[in-house]
Here is the input.
Amino acid sequence: MTTITLVQGDITRVSADAIVNAANSSLLGGGGVDGAIHRRGGPAILRECRALRASRYGKGLPTGRAVATIAGDLDARWVIHTVGPVYSETEDQSDLLASCYRESLRVADGLGARTVAFPAISTGVFRWPMTDAARIAVTAVREAETAVREVGFVLFDERAYAAFASQLPD
Ligand code: ADP
Here is the structure.
């Protein structure tokens, strides 16, 4: 059984075996949560991202996939970078968003991580409507077959927290 917990705050301040980054496919950093993770985690994370880019992901990390690096100065053993889909009004990309959660948990299992913290993937620059993103995220984690004991969704603001809370029983 995986326990789901909700926290409102900054994901770079939490402690977990693995912290998930809503990265972009370049793996070379960006804004939002990605920028915050690299800022607080320090340059070692970006160095490993660059090496991954050179060795395995020359064309970038595909949307819906996940890959781990060290966590630098963060209070975690690993950062798991995953690339969410950009929200589209014409194309249903829900399964790609769900895949970010599934693949991140699969990578976490491979590492032996037991606690994993997720941000609300794709809900910032990638514009996914928060309530729908919350439903997809919670469903994907609930349905995942994983040895991860605790998944924490770390929501940056009250609106995101409320959207995720509405997907969980009281
Ligand atoms: P994406 O490109 O996947 O949309 P963003 O980083 O732009 O990624 O946004 C994803 C979500 O992460 C948004 O809801 C945003 O408010 C939130 N966010 C931004 N910074 C942080 C942070 N430091 N901790 C947790 N969540 C954050």
Q: What stands out?
A: The longest strand covers residues 3-8. Residues 86 and 126 are 4 Å apart (CA to CA). The domain at 3-165 is CATH 3.40.220.10 (Leucine Aminopeptidase, subunit E; domain 1).
